[in-house]
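<instruction>
Derive structure tokens from the sequence

<record> Sequence and structure tokens follow
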Amino acid sequence: MKKAIFTTIVLALISLSSFGQADIKKKKETFTVYGNCGMCERTIEAAVTDQKGVFSADWNQETKKMVVSYNPEKITLEKIKQRIANAGYDSDSHRATDKKYNALHGCCQYERPE
């Protein structure tokens, strides 16, 4: 009997938590971010994954493409790209300052686009 009550309560809590998650807005964007290596990948992804509203960030070293999933009610794509630029990496629309770029490790200094 106690087991049945416990199971019912657990199922009710799971359904309530799933119901609340349906309201979360999620947007997925893909854009170019320049970099070279695995160290770049860790830095680029870390620049945005710790931000409220960012669910995931994945940068591909070969294609130079960043795929980010985020809640547009919590953070904008512009802010995400600016965080990457602040870490020293150029994207298709935001350029890192020369100071930030020059502070990157030697192997991370990619050929900058014009």
About this structure: The radius of gyration is 20 Å. The CA atoms of residues 13 and 91 lie 42 Å apart.
